[in-house]
Fold each of these.
Amino acid sequence: MALLTDLVAGLAAGSVEVIDLTAPLSEGTPVIRLPPSHGQPWPFERQVISRYDSAGEAYWNNIRLSEHTGTHFDAPVHWPSGRHLDDVSAVPPGRVVAPAAVLDCSAAAAADHDFLLRREDVEAWQAEHGPLPERGWLLYRTGWDGRSGDAEQFLNGGHTPGVAPDCARWLAQETSLIGLGVETVGTDAGQAMAFTEQPWPCHWYFQGANKYGLTQLQNLKRLPPQGAVVITGPLPIVGGSGSPARVLALVERSQIKQGGE
Ligand code: MN
């Protein structure tokens, strides 16, 4: 058990830091907007059950939200391509504690809000930083977390960055990645419904390969390109297509980026 003893010692000494990649969850949390024919996820709502109302009364709330509200986890069964694969309660916990690669395309996404990550971008990153981690997450930084406090800016009229269909297919089918994490409201680009080659390619290919999605992440700017370990805990909703999730990263302090762009 020396490994875990070392980890606990590192956490206590601050040489390993826990970075929260989760967006705060509130009534102001942006939710995706789809054409009416697709239905709409509920925004976060709460109703007070009691709030110290009488002597000895506790404070607690009922909450209402969708499986895909705020920072959340997409399970394979979310998409038609994964309909016979795992629902969120069947996701093996050992699969979602995993190393992470962080690709920073924030400059490209600032210049072009419809920027699509291409295979050559990932290959250029690999030439600089080494291979994608085995059975790891690809965390795709676009700078979109800087907009998350304002729903209009965050959703940007449906113009948000994503991944090109051929790149999504390659990542999902030909690498050992377990999933894709993004800062935007969904794993796919805002315009991905209209892609002719493959609409919503991240959902189609990743979920179809029994792989996962993570959305509305924050603080990716503090993570190194390689070396972080991501821990995420979707609720085991039986039959569920996904779940709001707390997403944490363990990072060695010497690797944490200060400031960030
Ligand atoms: Mn989702």
Amino acid sequence: MRTRVAIIGAGPAGLLLSQLLHVEGIDCMVLEQRDRAHVEGRIRAGVLEQATADLLERVGADSRLRAHGLRHDGFDLVVDGEMFRIGLRDLTGAGVVVYGQTEVVRDLIEAGLQRGTPLLFDAQGVRLHDIDGSAPFVTFEHDGGEQTLACDFIAGCDGFHGVSRAGLSPELGSAFERVYPCGWLGILAEAPPCHDELIYSNHERGFALASMRSRTRSRYYVQCALDDRLEDWSDERLWNELAVRLGGRAAEAMTRAPAIEKSIAPLRSFVFEPMRHGRLFLAGDAAHIVPPTGAKGLNLAASDVRYLAEGLIRFYRRGEAEGLEAYSRKALARVWKAERFSWWFTGLTHRFPDMDPFARRLQAAELDYLRSSRAAQTTLAENYVGLPL
Ligand code: APR
Ligand code: PHB
């Protein structure tokens, strides 16, 4: 088998890249280790920057997004029970679209299948070869046989635990990391949201977030201890904790329905540089992770593959390699700004167990400043809606 671009991983990064290339007539093939039902069933975050929504439109995967995406022009912050609003549109002229990543993945798979993009699920044992040479190839098992896919380039879109970054010798790059001393416990419930915008709360018992997937489906999170187990958190305990941390108005409006899904995720910041090694390009979670507080994970995956697609299109249309050579530098410049924002917004809204009284007072002062300063709110809003590409 041969293709121009072998794409490892059918998450948002790999799927979106495949469609950006396919609409330009550039052959590619996506190799995914899990089955389609697993990929389409994973519950992830759900806030799209306008630039991400525009990319979905460009590849014709936006009809459900247009019909069901919820346009939000602001969100609310609750500080010790008192709520104030960050008016995104008023401050920046832009808003965000609330639409689950699960739905984005379904829409991209659907678009790919309709367009006839080769999308191979259940591709096991993927290995990359000769990424430093001029004729790289990928081997994997599929349908009980060993397969070889020859290509010009490989896009490593296989997430944080994938093989693409793991296969590089550590001395080829630098890894930067922060692990936070807490996790997020998330719950998805068939219940109308408690508020028409998202609510981020900093409470003495820890962070909480009220989000949504639609007008009938809610998504909530509470900060939990790293060693908490799901069994520690009955639905009742979780709803009670959300009510306390989100405060009066939200607590009154909250519909307590049984959890459809409940999970605990650690919080991590991670970047691997550079994002290119020979003919291998890393994109999305394969190259970087952000804590979910700023909702940047999916949006960064989208901006990475936009830069990468631009480089590949220029290469195949005009024979120019400059776009590919600039990929890592351009992507990392945006990645680090989102890393900074996600780290900052996490620090502002969480109560870490190792926070001393000095750090806590600085946090309270910063929240107070944010409440009263349009300049501070604009800085937050600009980053939240997404910095220019
Ligand atoms: N071979 C083939 N596929 C693999 C391999 C492998 N060895 N390892 C992982 N994969 C697949 C995973 O099963 C998954 O479908 O790669 C895909 C990676 O998808 P994501 O983890 O969703 O990463 P990405 O596409 O970069 O999207 C980033 O997703 O994880 C969230 O929070 C993250 O919002 C961010 C976004
Ligand atoms: C979500 O709805 O899952 C969500 C929303 C906003 C965030 C993180 C997650 O900052």
Amino acid sequence: MRLTKTSDLWWKNAVVYCLDVETFQDGNGDGCGDFRGLTQRIGHFERLGVTCLWLMPFLPTPDRDDGYDITDYYSVDPRLGTLGDFVEFVRTARDRGMRVIADLVVNHTSDKHPWFRSARESRDSPYRDWYVWRDEPPADGPEGVVFPDQETSLWEYDERTEQYYLHRFYKHQPDLNVANPAVREEMAKVMGFWLELGLSGFRVDAVPFFLETAGSLDAPDLPDPHEYLADLRAFMARRCGDAVLLGEVNLPYEDTLRYFGDGVGDELTMCFDFVGMQAMYLGLARGSAAPLVDALAKRPEPPRDAHWATFVRNHDELTLDKLSEDERAEVFAAFGPSPDMQLYGRGLRRRLPPMLDGDPRWIRMVYSLLFSLPGTPVLYYGEEIGMGENLAVEGRFSVRTPMQWQPDPVGAGFSPADPKTFPAPPPSGPYAPTAVNVQSQRHDPDSLLSWITLLISRYREHPELPWGDLTLLPSPDAAVLIHRCSTDDTSITAIHNFSDRETTTTPGLPDGPHTDLLTRETVEVTTGHLTVPPYGCLWFHQST
Ligand code: NOJ
């Protein structure tokens, strides 16, 4: 493949870093992270090589769903700072060559949002049709509660106006009626507002949920709901030509493909690869690359300039919902055997390093995969230093503990305040801030932080990885994944051993010495064979 595209398709080889302002750095000593603190930490991202920061919701909120329950789309949660602090932060990030994107929550608002307060006042409210109301929960309406521990229905009865409203998530998050043109216009205005303040796009929350509402409920006669997504994309592109929509679409590959745009125009720029992520965990549990090979072989090529977004962990439960029940049970048994580690029957509320017994070889191999597989890698804060979870904290908050900056057992360098005021306390034990923190790892060449910094710089140096064509090479040992990303002139061959034993493989490289791009060590290919250490990972560059 020839690299004819221009570099303003910046997302193709971006390194995205997701964080929650609330848990990243407290800049005013009140126990809550804020934009001032975040801005002071900008050098961390620069040293790591991050090119795009994804901010989780930072808008005013009663905070019953970690900010995904919004009460004002045009402001900043006062606990986190002001609009001025936000703009200073974006400006500083830009100065260091980084873009900023943020969550866009179109599916629902908080029930405390003035729109919903008005809507539930009376059936004649001008905002009544901004939400989805029914006299009775319809028999043919959407199905499946997302949070089975909290909700039993998608419909909540409103006493005052004697109708039910739809809520795909919690009952305190009523679904917006995106079939209503007024809602559509407002959401475009929200996007325009934040683009004007310097955002380079959005991580779009819960995409299939709001599109489903667009088509199937209030306006069954509406054209394809995907047109709505295409409209949002077109609007964004008019305002900011290189802005992106990174979509949360946890569906099988063939269904996800539609969300990139299938004829009605461009829709999402990137979709998270939930299927590949889950296959990887199954492979890790089995000590076999086969599930991931299978997923990659089935993974469709996104159309036009769209791209997959790859990840190891996000801020939610580590969902395993696309695995079969038996497969999920295997991953649970390997990585989260105690019911306390599991959530909603479909996921794990753990971070990677404790799941992999803290084995540095294994952990490094996983991140080597993240940066070598085609797709845009997305890191979740704390992954770069190998943070663990705090199971003493409820639900998904076990993986949303403060960023660990310093070996301070109490405040982790996150805040000098009383930890009782923190959004969640840092873990104790082997993953406490005394053991896992940025300060200790920063100047240690053997640390995970140094490893991830190295992976990022190699990934950025080698456009074959994000731009090249993927070939999966046959491996005599199913524990080993061999993949190659090739352009017309050059290729990178990457080898990953999912097992804890040394093995030999056939990397498809000529006999003789080859330099591993990661360690700069020379390894020998003899009669087509190469020795791979336990959990080994090697990258080779070749000119063709
Ligand atoms: C998906 C987000 O990732 C999750 O954290 C949130 O609870 C739901 N959407 C509802 O907004």
Amino acid sequence: MSKSSVTITDNRTGKSVELPVLHGTHGPDAIDIKSLHRELGMFTYDPGYVSTGSCRSAITYIDGDEGILLYRGYPIEQLAQHSSYLEVCYLLLYGELPSTEQMTEFRTIIRHHSMVHEGLRRFYSGFRHDAHPMAIMVGIVGALSAFYHDSLDVTDPEHREISAHRLIAKMPTIAADSYKYSIGQPFMYPDNSLGYVENFLRMMFAVPTEPYEINPVVARALNLILILHADHEQNASASTVRLASSSGASPFASISAGIGSLWGPAHGGANEAVIRMLQSIKSVKEVPKLIERAKDKNDSFRLMGFGHRIYKNYDPRAKIIRAACHDVLKALSTKPEPMFEVALELERIALEDDYFRERKLYPNVDFYSGMIFKAIGIPLNMFTVVFAMARTVGWIAQWMEMMEDPENRIGRPRQLYVGSPQRDYVPLDKRR
Ligand code: ACO
């Protein structure tokens, strides 16, 4: 910890407090305000946590102004080019890239846990046939606590590790089953002779009656998408997981809460919202009208896939995925959909428009990921489910880090109360 500090003075009383300034490896310094309430009787007000750091973390680093994203220090561009999703999982969980032996062992462990309990499979039939797969996933993942009692002591590092492995291993099975149930097809059991991504594709798209061949272009594209979505530091869903589990709640319940948070259209649900928005635009001629709507303060419409709380230059994941999007369409010889043309026009006009430039609103990863998902055959209502599958390792890494942090306490934000002053109860017959 550094010796630098800032002093805050309450001008009303003249009382001061000296607050230590903390330095990270990269990024802006942070004022440690822990003693503020004790010393000055005040707390900070920061809706949306725009200026508030909630923890120390050694997992992911983002520099939104420079468009930098690092997992455990490694640039996302290098991981996207050279790594595999499962290797990235190892990196996020354990902090270092694995040796060959460590990778082999990790792969074996994850394979070993890929099946879900048969009793859990029966849960699916309780859902309406047309339920959104995200709704099913929230329920099924939460229900895992009811099946794995043997590893629910969150104070035991071994239990935490088993839960982490179970979640990473079972998520593709749960995701694919959620989809199969929603379309009325039989569930496919995992095939442990396949890799993580290939296994998921088979469980999603194969049927027991037909042979299924995995397209390597599709597997590569999905591997890339999973890597790009694996973690993103203290975003809404990761913070939800941390807050939920800060009470000592089970990791399954906490990850289920994270999935619920991710579902929102301002977060992971944006990739689905992007495609729905693009599909509603009949031709490129309608694009300027849409841009005007997005700029109109009296219209709640927002351009989905534009803007980011942290990236105010460009989203590095968007840059990688934009290039991959073109490659995938070419490799699959997919005729570009009219929607794709609309997307490029939207991107072009928005990038030239003063409103978007002044507010630093650039296309984010969701603007392009939906187009890849569409090209590789992932249905619209599964986009956010695949995102949740990818992000599970990030949530778990954040949870494990939090559980090992000596500074960890139950999360409990304060509030500025603006309700009625204290008043006395009035019996019903005396009220006017
Ligand atoms: N379209 C039009 N205007 C926008 C958009 C948008 N997509 N996003 C932000 N703005 C405007 C706001 O109206 C506001 O304008 P003002 O200053 O004149 O009032 C300004 O830009 C700042 O917006 P905020 O809402 O304060 O930005 P914030 O950081 O809180 O929100 C968010 C970020 C939620 C991502 C927002 O940009 C948004 O809703 N984007 C569309 C949804 C989306 O793509 N989400 C995916 C996020 S990435 C992810 O989860 C992987």
